[in-house]
Design goal:
Heat Shock Protein 90, alpha+beta, 467 residues, 18% strand, five-stranded mixed sheet, single chain
Length: 467
């Protein structure tokens, strides 16, 4: 960053200095040439005037050279063949020598050129030459010379200023750029060091934010938000693994205990073997249900469980599901009712939607006392289907209602496993899976109310998925 900044500044300063130098040199030379031109024109006019007034040629030439004041300039008048008629030299040995005849003007214009001094080649002279034609037979060459020492000194001083100021400015810009770059990037270094310290075991750490209003502060804040989401995901993952291990350990422990008990004595009654096998079978089915639910959630989280939509009728699916649930509910003398409804064509994953409804009905059957009632209702607005599952069960405690869709969450941790006879896993995964299925179809699953009179869940599905 400092190199780019200094390089750009160097380019700008060099171009600027070069432009100023050329402009200054042009102005100095124009002003210098204007003074020499004035002298040439003055001598020309004075020579013509003296000759017209009848002065002799030597007297007119002498008057033209000496009556005009030009202290820093040497002047000379030559005839048309280049012979010196008269010269006014300067004390420092500056002469107005006639240039090469090839460089002499043909007309009345003034021609400028640079020439070395007579005794000092390092001294440059500015020479102006003009041909003055008084008659067809008579013409003169007027030559004026002036040393360029003053102009050269001014330009040399300007070069010295630029050669000193530009490197000094670049040096200052270099150190200033380094200071500003390091100061500006110091938060990046702190963020880098902070990020290097963060690992899976220290996701609670956050990057330092020096100024939350600038771009780096916003970047650090965004990164901290990402860390917060990762930390939450890691916590959920660890909790998920711990809860899954706990849920799997209980049925495995029951199977292991029942097997050890039956193997303690080699000779037992057939009824005892049958009872033990029934326990093992029940716990095996429970394990299988837990593993299937875990597999479903794992595929859902990884995005591998894609929907397989096709056209079907939602009212027919609900009717079939209600009939299947009625068989399970009949064991507890619970009635399942589903009122009449109009046709409800829908496009979605029928298997997942059936699982969602069964999970909700299974949850209602578990928590409804014998003699209770479960009701299913299907309604439709212009853009949505609404499925309501209501029961007359024990209800869900108020403090537990915000957590019922969390995995492995159960409002009553001490609930006995005898409620699993209807095939539920009892692991607190049913509602979580149902919630995911509803959202996967672009809908939602919400608990509308729950108290001592029972609970009511509402499923909302977009009707625009219908072909």
């Amino acid at each position: 960053m400092t190199l780019w900044h200094t390089g750009t500044l160097a380019f700008v300063l060099i171009v600027f200095s070069l432009g100023v130098y050329l402009l200054a040199a042009n102005q100095l030379y124009r002003r210098f040439d204007a003074g020499v031109r004035t002298t040439v024109e003055g001598i020309s006019r004075l020579l013509a005037y003296e000759l017209v007034e009848g002065e002799s040629e030597p007297q007119a030439i002498h008057s033209a050279l000496n009556e005009h004041y030009f202290p820093d300039q040497a002047a000379a008048i030559f005839d048309a063949q280049g012979h010196l008629l008269e010269e006014k030299a300067l004390p420092n040995n500056i002469h107005a020598d006639l240039p090469n005849r090839l460089l002499l003007p043909d007309g009345d214009e003034i021609r400028f050129l640079n020439a070395p001094g007579r005794n000092n080649d390092n001294e440059k002279l500015r020479v102006a030459t003009r041909r003055v034609n008084l008659t067809h037979e008579k013409s003169y060459l007027i030559v004026v010379s002036q040393g360029l020492t003053e102009v050269s000194n001014d330009l040399a001083m300007l070069r010295s200023v630029f050669l000193t100021a530009v490197p000094a400015a670049l040096l200052l810009a270099w150190f200033g750029g380094l200071f500003l770059a390091r100061k500006s990037l110091a938060p990046v270094l702190e963020m880098s060091q902070g990020a290097r310290r963060i690992s899976a075991e220290s996701l609670g750490e956050r990057l330092p934010i020096t100024n939350p209003r600038d771009e780096l502060g916003q970047l650090a804040a965004t990164f901290n938000e990402l860390l917060a989401r990762l930390q939450e995901s890691f916590i959920k993952q660890r909790q998920f693994v711990a809860d899954a291990s706990h849920e799997l350990r209980t049925p495995l422990h029951i199977i292991h205990t029942a097997t050890e008990v039956i193997l303690e004595r080699p000779q037992r009654e057939v009824s005892e073997y049958q009872e033990t096998l029934a326990i093992i079978n029940e716990q095996t089915r429970r394990l299988n249900k837990i593993v299937e639910d875990l597999f479903t959630l794992a595929r859902a989280d990884s995005g591998q469980r894609k929907l397989e939509p096709h056209d079907f009728y939602l009212d027919e699916l609900i009717t079939e599901t209600a009939r299947a649930a009625a068989v399970l509910a009949g064991r507890k003398k619970i009635s399942v009712e589903f009122g009449e409804t109009v046709e409800a064509p829908y496009r979605g994953d029928e298997a997942l939607l059936r699982q969602m409804l069964l999970n909700l009905l299974d949850n209602s059957i578990k928590h409804t006392h014998p003699g209770g009632q479960i009701v299913l209702r299907l309604g439709r607005t212009d853009s949505t289907y609404s499925v309501v599952v209501a029961d007359t069960g024990t209800g869900i405690p108020v403090e537990a209602q915000p957590h019922i869709f969390e995995r492995f969450y159960r409002a009553d941790k001490a609930r006995t496993r005898s409620l699993n006879e209807n095939g539920g896993s009892g692991a607190g995964l049913g509602l979580s899976i149902a919630h995911w299925i509803a959202e996967a179809h672009g809908g939602s699953l919400n608990l509308q109310h729950s108290d001592h009179t029972g609970s009511q869940f509402r499923i909302t599905l977009p009707a625009n998925q219908v072909d």
